[in-house]
Amino acid sequence: MLKLIINDCRKFRVLTGFEQWLVLEFITDLLATRLGLRLAGFHRWKNMITWLTRKKSWRAADVSPADVAVKIATIEEATARHLPFKTNCLERSLALLWLLRKRGIAADLRIGARKEADRFEAHAWVEFEGAVLNDAGQAHRHFVPFEGLSSSLEMQTQ
């Protein structure tokens, strides 16, 4: 266990300042999301994220929002693998959505469902301009997205 922590610290130190900030911000947002989902529920927590990021818009002229979105999703996925606790796809997706929207990137949360062996299963992922950001395993392909959900989660801007 100690060896894993030391290796993770070494990996963290070689990241750029921006990447280190993203790691810390993702962990903070993920913990807040876990707590928010448990205390407030999905709809209230999703509305809180929307409210907190309502006035954000993309401003960087020299970097495309798609490039930044992919970078943030990559950092998020790597960070989630090294956490000392398990997270689920909804927690990770909401935290990623929050990270992106804080930067003015209008990503969309998708939630899909399927029935497998008489069990109902659900999965959450984040898309930007139709591209899936946080589902490297392509699990989302096995789930039918709920229609109309994304329109209720669209980024609110003035």
Number of structural domains: 1
Averaged pLDDT: 82
Low-confidence stretches: 1-6, 150-158
Cα separation of the termini: 48 Å
| SSE order, one letter for each helix or strand | HHHHHEEEEH
Principal-axis shape equals: globular
Task: Outline the structure in words.
Helix content is 52%, strand content 15%. By secondary structure, it is of the alpha+beta class. The chain has one domain. It has a four-stranded antiparallel beta sheet with strand order 3-2-1-4, with helices on one face. Helix 2 packs across helix 3 and helix 3 runs parallel beside helix 5. The chain starts with a helix and ends in a 6-residue tail after the last helix. The N terminus and C terminus are likely disordered.
Tell me briefly what this model is:
By secondary structure, the protein is an alpha+beta fold. It has helices spanning 2-13, 17-40, 42-52, 65-81, 89-102, 149-152, and strands at residues 108-116, 119-128, 131-132, 144-145.
List keywords for this structure.
158 residues; alpha+beta; 6 helices; 4 strands
Would you spell out the secondary-structure blueprint of this structure?
Layout: H1 2-13, H2 17-40, H3 42-52, H4 65-81, H5 89-102, E1 108-116, E2 119-128, E3 131-132, E4 144-145, H6 149-152
Helix pairs in contact: 2-3, 2-4, 2-5, 3-5, 4-5
